[in-house]
Each structure stands twice: as C-alpha cells, then as structure tokens.
Amino acid sequence: MSVHINAKKGEIAETILLPGDPLRAKWIAETYLDNAVCYNKVRGMLGYTGTYKGRKMSVQGTGMGIPSISIYAHELITEFGVKNLIRVGSAGAIKQNIKMRDVIFAMSASSSSSLNRNRFNGGDFAPTASFDLFDKAIKTARDQKISFKAGNVLSSDFFYTDDPLDHEKWAAYNVLCVEMEAAGLYSIAAKHNVNALAILTISDSLITGEQTTAQERESTFSNMIKIALELG
Ligand code: ADE
After folding, report:
1. pLDDT in tens, 187-196
2. Which residues form the Nucleoside phosphorylase domain (predicted)?
3. CA 93, chain centre distance (Å)
4. CA of 203 to the centre of ligand 1 (A)
C-alpha cells in the first residue's frame, strides 16, 4: 500500500478514471465496470478495479484541488504503475460559446496556482494533455456522435474567488472554462512520462449564473464517462 491508497501491487489497472468525488467513483464502478472490487477506503477516497469490455480498468476519487489530485496521481504512478490517468470532472463555463452540459477536452491547463512557478523557480511550465489520449478521445467522441469542444482550461485554486470578474481576463485569452485539478494532473504525469487527459462536463456558467441540478449532472456526466472508458 502507499500512504493514501490501501491497495496491493497489481490491484490497480494501467488505465484509471479520476473523478473528484469518491461517490462518483463508486457510481462509475457500479454502473459501468464488470466485477468491480473496491481496493481503497482510506480517507473515504474510494477506488475500484473491474473490467470494461473485458479490459482491466480502475476508477479512483481524487478530492478537490491541485494538491489533492497531485497526491493521488503521484502514488498511482510511482507505487502502482498507472500509465493512463483520465480526469472526469465538472467545470464552470467562462466563455460565451461554452454551454451547460458541453463536453470539453482540456488540451492544456493554465493556472492561478503557484505550483509550477515554485517548481520551476519562477518559470512558466505549460501543463499539456497527452496527445495519444487526446487523439483517441476525439476519435471516440466522433464515433459515438458526442459533440465536444477542446482547448485551454483554467485550473484555479479558488472555487469562491474574491474577484468575481477574475475569469474575464482568462476568457479574453480563449480559456474555455474553470476547474481545479487538470494543471496538477498534467504536471505530475509529465514528470513521470505517463499519459493524462482531463475530460470535463460544464456544470455551471460564471457568465449566466446557470447551474445544473444533481440529477442533470448524473445524466450528462454519462457522455464524458462513455468516452473515457474507451481510452483503456
Ligand atoms: N468546477 C465546476 N464548476 C466550477 C467553478 N465554477 N469553479 C471552479 N471549479 C469548478
């Protein structure tokens, strides 16, 4: 076991889906995986391994924010040999053309976090998705006739920000939406030379103030999950 994951070597698949919410990990495992077994309950951060279309696949909650997802990504890669890490999460729209329930592939992740400036002594690292996963995700979405958008996203350290118009500057530079984890995931994956992709579903809009209900989130999340499951 690692510090935060109570699994034995070999119990976690090379490809893993990473929702922020551990109960969503449970829902994904119970809804989509065959023979899913729970391998982790430490801190309630549930993790499961099963099969999807006969291929071994895991799903692990990560918690919210860059520090939390960075801990799980680090341990999954270094202790359990995970090679393909696919975040499946929600995001808030910050550009006019991004609508509720849109599926977004994060090609790159800008950030208000000081994480990479600290890591690179003030330099600006550009956290980037794996081209292989990105390419496969696009082909899968097209095959399944699921529409999507792709581009730069903002991984913010703030859900509740002091400046409610902060997102406008990012949007002016064509950043599509705000979430809180992708830049951390992409940076850890890059460090260890493995693949990462964040697939996001728009759950709210910072422009219109719209929000999806919990029930809507469940049904609209399924498009994103169906794409992610094909990436193993
Ligand atoms: N995830 C979903 N909506 C968000 C928002 N408005 N800000 C940050 N992360 C989010």
Report:
1. 999 999 999 9
2. 16-222
3. 16
4. 8
Q: Which residues carry out catalysis? A: 204
pLDDT (0 to 100) of residue 201: 97
With a pLDDT cut of 70, the percent of the chain lying above it is 100
Q: Which CATH number fits domain 15-230: 1.10.3720.10, 3.40.50.1580, 3.90.230.10, 3.30.2350.20?
A: 3.40.50.1580
C-alpha 109 to ligand 1 mean position (Å) = 14
Report the C-alpha gap between 98 and 111 in whole angstroms.
Answer: 19
- Ligand 1, CB within 6 Å, residue ranges: 90-92, 156, 159, 178-180, 203-204, 206
Domains in the chain: boundaries: 15-230
Nearest atom within ligand 1 for CA of residue 206? 6
- pLDDT computed for residue 216 by the predictor: 79
Full-model pTM: 0.97
Task: Output the CA–CA distances (angstroms, integers) from residue 25 to 41, 77, 132, 213, in the order listed.
Answer: 12, 18, 24, 19
Q: What is the dihedral of CA 98, 138, 75, 125, to 10 degrees?
A: -60
* Ligand 1 pocket test target in 64, 158, 160, 180 with most atoms within 8 Å of CB: 180
pLDDT recorded at residue 78 = 98
- CA of 67 from ligand 1 middle (Å) equals 16
DSSP H helices in 7-164: 22-32, 66-80, 115-119, 131-143
ipTM confidence score: 0.96
